[in-house]
Design brief:
By secondary structure, the chain is mostly beta strands. Among the domains are: about 1-70; about 75-180, no CATH class; about 285-340, no CATH class. Helix content is about 5%, strand content about 25%. The protein has helices at about 130, 350-355, and strands at about 15-20, 35-40, 45, 50-55, 60, 70, 75-80, 90, 95, 105, 110, 145-150, 155, 165, 170, 185, 190, 195-200, 205, 210, 215-220, 230, 235, 245, 250-255, 260, 265, 280, 285, 290, 290-295, 295, 305-310, 315, 320, 325-330, 340. β34 (about 315) and β35 (about 320) form a beta hairpin. The longest helix is centred in the C-terminal third of the chain and has 8 residues, at about 350-355. The chain is rod-shaped. The model is unreliable at about 350-355 (pLDDT under 50).
């Protein structure tokens, strides 16, 4: 000002501060040092030689700076409480990626970034503790990148800090960006992204869809493919997925792809299930004579073929029966009436019927 007689009457302009050492110990001015210099980085100078630290989350460079300081860009935050010397000290926060300040961008759907390395790591989770340790010695922000969501999770938000798990019994590919990417696992069914239900019997489930077994076949619960549908008893198929055909006459089918032929001279009805349904053809027999065999009560091995009935016998229901004494029958006879009296003998029952009384 006009008429100044002391250097201390010289006041620093707004945006400058007093130079270091402007006052000697004791408070007297040092005219050789007293003066004004640029405001320091990380500070602002409102006038009267004052230099004040930038508020939290703001920065400044060494320059004529009356204030206010510059604020860190959106999606970033200061990495120190004070002394923020430039935007390179604005750390990208949780849910973002980039180098610093204005270069920070939200993670795209299907990705996440869980760690916050900014001031105090206010949002850092326990899994980021190792990353946060030792960050106090940094002079610039640390570049961070978003990570694709792991398999069986998804994120449909911008700026995700974690991914959401798929519904139970559903899976998704890495980097999935919507819950509908979660598809029910094999042996379950349901709409994409919705609850998954165990596959019921007589069907198979894959790709989230439930399919009925083919006609005349069945499957256990929790089946995942058409080859789990096996033909029912009395039916057979040529392969694991071809149509099921009714078991033809002369065979028996326990189910699946199995078609068994009845043994020689034995037959069965169409749709038979067990070998015991293969009965000897009329006039043939196996195993039993007069309802018995060598072991006592008749026990038939149905895997054996049937033999033609000899002359003098008749055969039915797997059993050979001898004709009565003094009678005979032709080979292959299948009922008692086939036994005819030998020459010189007559059938008492027949004669009685013909003459209306006893001989």
């Amino acid at each position: 000002m006009a008429g100044a007689v002391n250097v201390s009457t010289c006041v620093c302009a707004v945006g400058f501060r007093l130079a270091d050492g402007s006052f000697r110990p004791g408070g007297a001015e040092d005219p050789d040092v007293y003066g004004c210099v640029l405001c320091d980085a990380g500070n602002f100078c409102p006038g009267n030689g004052e230099s004040l630290p930038c508020p939290r989350n703001r920065w400044s460079r060494e320059q004529v700076n009356a204030g206010p300081c510059q604020q860190c860009a959106v999606h970033s935050f200061a990495m120190a409480e004070s002394g923020m010397r430039g935007p390179e000290m604005c750390q990208c926060v949780q849910g973002t990626e980039g180098s610093f300040d204005g270069a920070c961008a939200l993670c795209a759907p299907g990705s996440f970034q869980p760690c916050d390395l900014s001031l105090g790591a206010e949002h850092a989770g326990a899994h980021c503790a190792a990353v946060v340790t030792g960050l106090g010695a940094r002079t610039a922000a640390t570049a961070v990148s978003c990570t694709p969501c792991p398999a069986d999770t998804y994120s449909d938000a911008h700026g995700a800090v974690a991914c959401s798990a798929c519904p139970r019994n559903a899976s998704s590919a890495p980097g999935s960006a919507h819950i509908t990417a979660c598809r029910c696992d094999a042996t379950f069914f349901g709409a994409d992204g919705e609850a998954c239900t165990p596959c019921p019997p007589n069907s198979y489930c894959s790709g989230g869809l439930k399919h009925p077994c083919r006609l005349h076949s069945q499957s256990p619960a929790s089946s995942d493919g058409p080859d789990d549908c096996l033909c029912r008893e009395g039916y057979y198929s040529l392969n694991a997925t071809s149509p099921c055909h009714k078991c033809p006459e002369g065979t028996y089918c326990p189910g699946g792809q199995t078609l068994n032929l009845c043994a020689g001279n034995a037959s069965s009805m169409a749709g038979s299930v067990r070998v015991q349904q293969c009965l000897c053809d009329p006039g043939t027999w196996r195993g039993c004579v007069d309802g018995r065999n060598a072991a006592g009560n008749c026990s038939i091995d149905y895997s054996l073929g049937c033999f033609h009935c000899d002359a003098g016998d008749f055969c039915f229901n797997n059993t050979l029966v001898h004709c009565p004494e003094h009678s005979s029958s032709a080979v292959g006879s299948d009922e008692g009436a086939d036994c005819k009296c030998n020459n010189g003998y007559y059938n008492v029952d027949v004669d009685t019927q013909e003459h209306g009384g006893h001989a």
